[in-house]
Amino acid sequence: MPDKQNYYYKIYDDKEELNYLRCTLPHDKVEELLTEYEKTHQKYFNPEFISYIQEKGYEAEIIKVSDISY
Fold first, then answer.
1. Which residues pair with 9 in a beta bridge?
2. Using one digit for the tens of pLDDT, what is the confidence trace for 46-67?
3. β-strands 7-12, 60-63: how paired?
């Protein structure tokens, strides 16, 4: 069984909040879902969009990214 491909995206919402998204969807599919999501939502918030992706049966989550120095 092949490993799932993970994609990572930097996303901003209407609150101009930055989050990082990890999911199994390529960019074109995320864009397609975003267009579909925007048809039924006045405002765009990252946690709600992630839930929308999950409701469609896809794996997606917001991840925290921290700086590290050494």
1. 21
2. 889 999 999 999 999 999 888 8
3. unpaired
